[in-house]
Automatic annotation (TrEMBL):
Protein name in UniProt: Roc domain-containing protein
InterPro entries: Leu-rich_rpt (IPR001611), Leu-rich_rpt_typical-subtyp (IPR003591), LRR_dom_sf (IPR032675), LRR_domain-containing (IPR050216), P-loop_NTPase (IPR027417), ROC (IPR020859)
Pfam families named among the record's database cross-references: LRR_8, Roc
Recorded GO CC terms: cytoplasm
Keywords: Leucine-rich repeat, Nucleotide-binding, Repeat
SMART domains, sorted: LRR_BAC, LRR_TYP
Length: 304
């Protein structure tokens, strides 16, 4: 409601501006109200927390920049979304969508933010790579088994979340340059990189893949060295002291999270030391690292 004194023209402009945003969240809607579709100038349509099972005729709202359909009961990705060329923000999280047909996302060349978390997606369409303006992508809590390598071509992607899926590996190219700032992949059956590396965050993932690439490219004189043992046994102290060639003291509160990688050289070899967190929750995945080529150092505090 406008309280100021306005000319009739100003009032008309103000009405048009307010009409651009239509908020129909929490209305228990089962179908899209027909009168909405008669307002082609709408730029933001907010429809979260309703009971929509499908939405059709969205193509009539060609000027939409924001479409919020979170927390509905959608079973299919609404194909009309492909006819919304100005869309920048699309929220479809917390629905029951199983698939995104090819040919829809390729139409959304201005899309910056895509939320698809908490659905039932098993894979991703190849044309996701066409959303070149994408800055934020949330695919957490789905059933996705593979991230296509082409996601790495999304040059503006800054935030990417894939927690709670069925991913066994992450594409190395995704972490090779680009402007990714935030990435999480918790609760996946990951082997490459292993869960511990992912727990250490983006920087650890990047250094893991970098190490792998370096290792493959020349005859390896590095010894992969694992420091295992209970929490507070002295693993990090030993690992860092060897790397620095002097006694390093680590404060009790300075706990290792996930895994830390240090390197130290001797005349013949270079030791790549993988210092694991000793906390219980990390034990389960240690076996992934203990390969026949690895040197394993078990650290025990004899005072205990
Ligand atoms: N007295 C003594 N304290 C140690 C020794 N090694 C480690 N500590 C201390 O024990 C605590 C746990 O060490 P840390 O290396 O973080 O153990 P981690 O959990 O196995 O990595 C730290 O406060 C260390 O300073 C040691 O040989 N002697
Ligand atoms: Mg430690």
């Amino acid at each position: 409601m406008c309280n100021c004194v306005c000319s009739p023209e100003q009032k008309q402009t103000a009405e048009q501006n307010t009409e651009q945003v239509v908020d129909l969240s929490r209305q228990r809607l089962k179908v899209l109200p027909a009168d909405i579709l008669k307002k082609p100038h709408i730029s933001q349509l907010i429809l979260d927390r309703n009971r929509l099972k499908n939405v059709t005729d969205l193509r009539k709202l060609r000027n939409l920049k924001t479409l919020i359909l979170s927390k509905n009961e959608l079973l299919d990705f609404p194909s009309d979304i492909g006819a919304l060329p100005y869309l920048e923000k699309l929220h479809l999280n917390q629905n029951k969508i199983q698939q995104i047909p090819e040919g829809i996302l390729s139409q959304l060349s201005r899309l910056k933010q895509l939320k698809l978390n908490n659905n039932r997606l098993t894979d991703l369409p190849g044309d996701l790579a066409c959303c070149k303006e994408l800055e934020y992508l949330n695919l957490s809590h789905n059933l996705i088994e593979e991230i296509p390598e082409t996601v790495a071509t999304l040059g503006k992607l800054e935030e990417f979340y894939v927690d709670n899926n069925k991913l066994c590996k992450l594409p190395c190219v995704l972490f090779d340059g680009g402007c990714l700032r935030k990435f999480t992949a918790r609760a996946n059956p990951l082997r490459e990189p292993p869960d511990e590396v992912c727990a250490g965050g983006l920087q650890q993932i990047r250094s893991y893949f970098k190490q792998l690439q370096t290792n493959e490219s020349f005859e390896d004189k590095r010894v992969k060295t694992m420091f295992l043992g209970a929490s507070m046994a002295g693993k990090s102290t030993l690992c860092k002291s060897l790397a620095k060639r002097e006694l390093v003291t680590i404060a009790e509160h300075d706990r290792t999270i996930g895994i830390e990688i240090n390197e130290f050289q001797t005349d013949d070899f270079s030791f790549l030391c993988w210092d694991f967190a000793g906390q219980l929750e990390y034990y389960l995945t240690h076996h992934v690292f203990i390969t026949p080529q690895a040197l394993v150092i078990l650290v025990i505090d004899l005072h205990r």
